[in-house]
Amino acid sequence: xxxxxxxxxxxxxxxxxxxxxxxxxxxxxxxxxxxxxxxxxxxxxxxxxxxxxxxxxxxxxxxxxxxxxxxxxxxxxxxxxxxxxxxxxxxxxxxxxxxxxxxxxxxxxxxxxxxxxxxxxxxxxxxxxxxxxxxxxxxxxxxxxxxxxxxxx
Length: 153
What we know:
Layout: H1 2-8, H2 15-43, H3 49-59, H4 61-80, H5 86-130, H6 134-146
Helix pairs in contact: 1-5, 2-3, 2-4, 2-5, 3-5, 4-5
């Protein structure tokens, strides 16, 4: 999203854009942490992982969207500025605005999906690793990664 926004606005990647990418990474990680933390909190009281993740995504939708909206609208004047010092600040603002616009929906979809994958692997491997059979864990991983899916017609 950040690279696309820089390309569309014909803005060069310079120091401002690189600083913007670091800011963007921090904001996106924070949004993911907010979602995962709430999912962990819900998981303590509920057993159905799918429902926990759906409720976590619904419950943290507003805070994540508010963080994104306030950041985007706060940086909009900086992105549109045409004054003398704008050549440093414009790329920073354009990078963060474009990146957040792309990353926020992905965060709300991918974080629960990745959480689910790690949760399932965690259950499988905790039993195997507790028994001390690391070879079995490696074998199970290879099978899971290269397992052919059955065709359903």
